[in-house]
Write a structure and sequence with these properties.
With 148 residues, the chain is an alpha/beta fold. It has six helices and five strands.
Length: 148
């Protein structure tokens, strides 16, 4: 597993990886440019976004990485906190999950591992939703039509 990005939880996550002896299975890559991130999307099947509302109230709205993952046809599992799941329709084009309840995340990942074909419709729905709701070309045309 590769974790791209940083944040306030990075040090705690690194300690947890060491505590669980997962150093050979988990790598932290810090910030990468868009071109490098795109390479990871193309090599992936699933995208997990576990964002939460921080103690000081900081939160993401719709993080760009979620529509980006959807536009690459990835199965999206995202936190139901702080608006990240507003990018998709729960259980139609992604999964909106409680980041503090790992069992449902693990169950979905196990189901995907065993029966990935059962998720193809959801991945296609995510791709379609990304094209219709987050495409700059589509949205610019909609905006232009408002002024005509």
């Amino acid at each position: 597993m590769k974790i791209i990005g940083g944040g306030a939880l990075r040090d705690a996550l690194c300690r947890e990886v060491q505590r669980l002896s997962l150093q050979n299975d988990v790598a932290f890559l810090d910030h990468l440019d868009e071109r490098e991130v795109s390479k990871f999307y193309k090599q992936s099947d699933i995208f997990l976004f576990t964002g939460i509302i921080s103690a000081d109230g900081d939160r993401d709205g719709i993080p760009n990485v979620i529509p980006e993952a959807m536009s690459h046809g990835l199965l999206v599992l995202a936190s139901n906190r702080a608006g990240s799941s507003e990018a998709f329709i729960d259980r139609e084009s992604g999964f909106s999950l409680d980041p503090y309840c790992k069992d449902e995340w693990v169950d979905i990942l196990n189901q995907y591992y065993l029966f990935s074909y059962q998720f193809e419709g959801m991945r296609k729905s995510a791709w379609s939703r990304a094209q219709s709701h987050f495409s700059s070309e589509v949205n610019c045309k909609k905006l232009k039509n408002l002024f005509l």
